[in-house]
Fold:
Amino acid sequence: MYTVIGSPNTRALRVYWALEELQLDYEFIPAEPHSTWAKATNLSGKVPSLRTSEGFNISDSVAILNYLSGKHGNEHSVFSFPMGTTERAEQDSITQFCCDDIDGPLSMYQKNSVFHPSSLKLPEIRSIANYEFSKGLAVLEKRISGKEFLLGDFFSVPDIICGHCAGWAISLGFSIPQSNEVSDYLKRVRRRKALKIAMEKTRAK
Ligand SMILES: N[C@@H](CCC(=O)N[C@@H](CS)C(=O)NCC(=O)O)C(=O)O
Structure:
């Protein structure tokens, strides 16, 4: 049994989504960033963290998703290529692209508007982040062209990151094109049953 620390309004939703895809049991603590639980499980006070039944703690959504997909994943759930293969190198490269170019701009905007001291808040940050996010989507369009998922036929970790970021971007009012291969792809991943179940289960608490 796993325990997830993190409110579903944060990147913890990625972990809930992955656990539902993998059909694993979990408990959860809907902790906000810098809460007592967040500080107890991550030195930076960030969420999410995952606690294993042996009491081992893993922080960072990508580390958690890679751990879960490596341990429990297969071609029917959250797929992961083995370490040391060129396919895995490509998987890691796509994951890193999603973190830098899709998650990065949203993170920059949210940090500045929520977590930074008011003396450092910049009104211009929104248009800068929107510009960076649009650039990320343009590259995502090339990466997804002709494919169902980012790794081709297999639903995997970067699909969860991009699918989560799409919902996050919409909630922040960032623009996503309404009709092209990227929007079709994002709609496809966000329609997955596991995401719906994860949101219902964790938001009900
Ligand atoms: N790379 C980390 C980022 C974690 C992160 O920044 N989480 C946000 C909530 S979604 C947070 O706790 N922010 C607090 C802060 O930036 O101080 C991950 O993917 O888990």
User: Anything to note?
Assistant: The mean pLDDT is 97.
